[in-house]
Amino acid sequence: MAEPFPPVEPYAHGLLEVGDGNRIYWETSGNTQGKAALCVHGGPGSGGHRGVRGMFDPEVFRIVLFDQRGCGESLPHASDPSVSLDHNTTDHLIADMERLREHLGIDRWLLYGGSWGSTLILAYAERHPERVSEIVIAGVTMTRPEETHWLYHGVGRLLPGAWEAFRDAVPEAERDGDLVASYDRLVNSPDEAVRVEAARAWCAWEDAVIAHEALGHPGYYSDKPDDALMAFVRICTHYFSHDAWLEDGQLLRDAHRLAGIPAVLIHGRLDLGSPLKSAWELAKAWPDAELKVIDDSGHTGSPTLRATALDAIARFGEKGR
Known about the structure:
alpha/beta
């Protein structure tokens, strides 16, 4: 089974001014003249995990990581309640990716990511298909209202105790309504205690949804430093309460714009929070995409899912730049 490559350190990094007072952290590692690959992290608001460099052969790839607005090492950080998220939307992130590509002098790049990163990859590629050489997604989401409703309402039928705790962390008058919108309001409260309690309750629910993933990373969401956890929840609720500023079904509707971009879509059959249906529908609408369903994986992966992603990336790497 394929294993990640040994750790490498960046040969360049910096903070790129992207407007609205934001600076996004970026770094490059691997082969300075290699095939460009951009790692697009999830969350939204998780920040780029530096270990993802190991998914790429550093002799073949020029590996680019970045932290999306408000999280990771990007500034200002959304853990600060005074930091506005008004200029933190999907369109802003797409523009940031283009500005980073131009800054680094890259013509086309492979895109790799999953979960929220999948949505952002698809939105970017449908906007700028000429800038994308290949795509590898590990965990397909399109952030449609039905997907968000399932994760924060529907899947509760499988986890009733944990879901009731999630629901009951909002004021009683709001428990029969839109829980994501309620949490968005709570994590922007002027009261620090209210913000912290809401953020922890949100992550406790996220962890409940992945608790069965023994081969992945159960406890992944709450296992963050306080600042990272708060930024993650503020940004998540901000995006999901606005349907990521995408029209309902937009990414699936516009999948024809991806024609000619080779892709591998990898999805865990045990993913409760993001069921296989979205990956299945996207693969049907995108003839250039190959769907691989991983029986032993949930949302946070497994050794089999990782090996499948490594193989897909390596195969695209063999094609050169």
